[in-house]
Amino acid sequence: MKPVNQKAWFLVLPVFICVAFSAILPLMTVVNYSVQDIISPERRVFVGTEWFAAVMRDEELHAALWRQLGFSLSVLLVEIPLGIALALSMPAQGWKSSATLVLVSLSLLIPWNVVGTIWQIFGRSDIGLLGAGLKALGVDYNYTGNSLDAWLTVLVMDVWHWTPLVALLAFAGLRSIPDAYYQAARIDGASKFAVFRYIQLPKMRGVLMIAVLLRFMDSFMIYTEPFVLTGGGPGNATTFLSQYLTQKAVGQFDLGPAAAFSLIYFLIILLLCFILYNWMQALGQTEKEGASHA
Questions:
Q1: Which helix (H) or strand (E) element contains residue 36?
Q2: The pTM is what?
Q3: Does 47-288 carry CATH code 1.10.3720.10?
């Protein structure tokens, strides 16, 4: 029997080393902090699950979680359909397609803190185009003093920043569809909606699943943009989970509760992504079974 060459595993070794230093070791440090009361650098007391119980009873955390869920779901409900519509309207070939791809991608190149600064100026009623325009129309808009205005501004800012990512993924999915499908649809006299419903949307399901998961995870960890724009206010209107965690760890220096909250935060994201992924998989399987029966 010919011996199996195991030298290929050495190619994977750098990946394991990078993962160990970038993920596993920091995770174990957080787990260590989450079960201890750090009184001083030299003195620590083991408290078990005390911090986890305290975090789960925190009403401010519950409010931030519901606020975060509402924001992330709103992001998906707006950005996914808008990104698909943008991808469908983009030219498929030629120099116009290349120019459109570059223009659509521009907002993705802007750093998060710069995005917050741009919208901070954009929303001002004295010098900002949005704020001054709404003021001229008689709209009482004040993202620094009105909770609803602040929340909507953060949502629109995120839509402006990240919808192009969904559009690019959807565009890639559309370009992977063979022309034979469109030719068959034209022969059958299918409408544009029928082509989208039965050809384009099913073929885009894979990239849309990636887009949904990416946007959900990223929106669930949003921090820099609302911090720069509103500082989490007015009140706690735009204080999402990541900012609440930062206030706990840096502002109050409660490392034990902050570490416990970090682990709970991590598990919440994993659980919600698992549920979302399986729901989308089940939805796709149901549609395939319905199409096969038809």
A1: strand 36-40
A2: 0.83
A3: yes
